[in-house]
């Protein structure tokens, strides 16, 4: 089995840092592997703690009297130099659970009020996002949203447009726009759900 011989922190940023890993492959070859992480220090990396504590939360919220729309954000991302469709999301603050983080983040990014639902742990436990580059993991929360869209909670660096997308618009977005993978999969679920039974996939046996 491959192993890690040494880990070195190479940056000192607030939200994201880089770590260099001196590694030995299963065939004995030595190499250098780069990992981005929300961890503040080497001891906090998941490769050391082996605890999958979620760094962030992703919010799948339905809107409207008949829950016929999905709350999306269209956000400018420096990594692609353009806009991408995503679910509202954000970091889990110390002392928060997933639902509390979801309520806070949806309010900050959209102005809407989130009403989370309880689901089986296998649907809400944290999963890893882009494991080839980072140890980041996120939990998903599900529920309904209501209220009035507002930009009042946005930070200066956030360039976000709130989109309430029905099935027609979702089909267009999937065909024509940049979409995050996690958001795209959930949108595909929504397209083929029974409109009378929102979040049907969460209750399938």
From TrEMBL:
Q: SUPFAM superfamilies, alphabetically?
A: Nudix
Enzyme Commission designation? 3.6.-.-
Q: Which Pfam families match?
A: NUDIX (PF00293)
Keyword hit for Hydrolase: yes
UniProt keyword Iron, yes or no: no
The kind of enzyme this is, by top-level EC class, is hydrolase
**Alphabetized UniProt keyword annotations:** Hydrolase
Q: What InterPro entries does this protein map onto?
A: Nudix_hydrolase, NUDIX_hydrolase-like_dom_sf, NUDIX_hydrolase_dom
Q: Name one GO molecular function term.
A: hydrolase activity
Q: Which residues form the Nudix hydrolase domain?
A: 52-187
PANTHER family with a match to the protein in the record? ADP-SUGAR PYROPHOSPHATASE (PTHR11839:SF1), UDP/ADP-SUGAR PYROPHOSPHATASE (PTHR11839)
- The protein depicted here goes by the name NUDIX hydrolase
State the organism of origin.
Answer: Laedolimicola intestinihominis
Lineage of origin: Bacteria, Bacillati, Bacillota, Clostridia, Lachnospirales
